[in-house]
Amino acid sequence: MELRAELAIPANLTELGVERDRLDELTEMALEDPSCGGNPVEMTRENTRALFDACM
Q1: CA dihedral angle for residue 34, residue 37, residue 40, residue 41, rounded to 10 degrees
Q2: Cα angle: 38, vertex 44, 45; to 5 degrees
Q3: Whose CA, among 7, 12, 22, 56, lies 20 to 30 Å from 49?
Q4: Phi, psi angle pair for 46, to nearest 5°
Q5: Segment 17-53, tens digit of pLDDT
Q6: Residue 53's closest CA among 16, 22, 9?
């Protein structure tokens, strides 16, 4: 936590300026990203959206 504070790394998506009404858009973008297929957990719309919700 100290390092994050020293480097001014935002704690969550809200601090990054992400608004909740954009989470559906971000979910779709994440699922289209080629790196999504390398995740050990299959990413679905439901669990990806839940992840973004938890990161707010």
Answers
A1: 110
A2: 130
A3: 7
A4: -65, -50
A5: 999 999 999 999 999 999 998 999 999 999 999 999 9
A6: 22
Neighbouring C-beta atoms of residue 3, cutoff 10 Å: 7
Do 36 and 43 contact (CB within 8 A), yes or no?
A: yes
Domain ranges of the chain: 2-54
Q: Please, which contacts does 33-41 make with residues 24 or more away whose CB atoms are closer than 8 Å? A: none
Instruction: Determine the residue type at 35.
Output: S
Please give the distance of CA 38 from its chain centroid, rounded to a whole number.
16
